[in-house]
Amino acid sequence: MDLLGSILNSMDAPPKTEDSKAREKRAKLAKLQKEERKKKADFREKVEKDVNKFINDAKRTRLKFPPMNKVQRSIVHDVAEIGGLTTFSFGEDEVDRYVMLFKKESPPPDEELEAYRNGEEYDPEVAKKKKEAQVSSLQTSEESAANMFASGVPYWPASKAPKGPGTSAGTFYKDKYKHLLGESSGKAAATTTKSNTSYGVVPSENKRDLRSIEETLNDIRKRKRHRPNEDGEGQPEDPGQK
């Protein structure tokens, strides 16, 4: 082999051109991506029309979309946010999860959201009756607790009574709060409180100083003048006081 042949053999081969299968695969992928973008654009356009129609309808306060995938739900949330609406998602993901829109001037009550989260239909009349029943039950429980307290019924069930020093099953409210309520309660404890008019032996009225300021100062000066000095003699009177 001559020198030129050895040099040519040692050189890398020129890059091969892309084969037809790779080009076909890449073109197919680009086509699918284009179709997917078009589907998203068409879906967004449809959602925008539905949302605009919902906003302009004064009688409607809620708009429920059918179950859809995560990408579609994100588009609905985005369009609703631009339109100034409130959105909630309900249902199980990848099964029946859907988006519901609410106008901000008509927010949903907690009972309605709870019904949708439980997969139930919301009925305002049923929810109203249910709430009234809960309020009535709460009032009955409070009245029952007050009657139990007044009659001395145990403040906890015997099966749940705590164990330890000073506690036992069947302990009464009055026994538990004796240090606060005292031995008597109710009308028996409603006694009139009177102020103590005597401290020790001398009545409090006799302990009040009824002198004026001038009289008090004069009495103090007199006591100072008659206070004995170190020699046992009284101090001389102040010439200015004569």
From TrEMBL:
Bias type Low complexity, positions: 184-198
A UniProt-annotated Pfam family: R3H
Disordered: annotated span: 1-27, 183-242
Basic and acidic residues composition bias: residue spans: 205-220
Residue span(s) of domain R3H: 41-104
Single GO molecular function: nucleic acid binding
PANTHER family: SPERM ASSOCIATED ANTIGEN 7, SPERM-ASSOCIATED ANTIGEN 7
Name listed for the protein in its UniProt record: R3H domain-containing protein
Species of provenance: Nematostella vectensis (Starlet sea anemone)
Organism ancestry: Eukaryota, Metazoa, Cnidaria, Anthozoa, Hexacorallia
